[in-house]
Design a protein that fits this description.
The protein has 1 helix and 5 strands, in the order βββββα. By secondary structure, it is an alpha+beta fold. The chain has a domain at 22-60. The strands form 2 sheets. It has a 3-stranded antiparallel sheet, with helices on one face.
Length: 61
Amino acid sequence: MLVMFVGADRTETAVNAAQVTFVSSVTDGTRIRFGEGRSVTVIEPIAEVMERLNVILRRDD
């Protein structure tokens, strides 16, 4: 399932919740990491990112 966020460059960013491996807080917002060294930085605070990812993952169970 995809979750929409706003990227640090103010563009819409779609994230596949099932591929997220790590989430961390950075000065620009929240960094979402995926496998193979890929990541995206979004402006939403980490608490909001975690909540939205968890809602999607729970829905898939």
